[in-house]
Write a structure and sequence with these properties.
Length: 91
């Protein structure tokens, strides 16, 4: 009798696992899509939070990233401090 219970338990578990696979796959697919969107938005978020540029210059860099993709992000890190930095020396 114990063997029959064990076999039935295993069969129920296998059926439930087979029914859950599409839900797990959809969840993993959604997670991958959200991660891809975050990675695409990451340069824009970094520029928005950056203090290297401000105002129209920041908007121009964001538009360049949207239309030129990641190449503009690389150029941003190489060329963005267009304004001279002010160094403060305290004695």
């Amino acid at each position: 009798m114990n063997v029959v219970k064990n076999v039935c338990t295993i069969l129920v578990f296998l059926v439930l696992a087979m029914l859950a696979l599409p839900l797990i796959g959809a969840g993993l697919g959604l997670l991958v899509v959200l991660a891809a969107v975050f990675i695409w938005l990451l340069p824009i978020l970094m520029i928005l939070n950056s203090e290297k540029t401000s105002g129209g210059e920041k908007l121009a860099w964001i538009l360049a990233i949207i239309f030129l993709s990641w190449f503009a992000w690389i150029f941003y890190f190489l060329l963005a401090p267009i304004k001279p930095r002010r160094d403060y020396w305290y004695d």
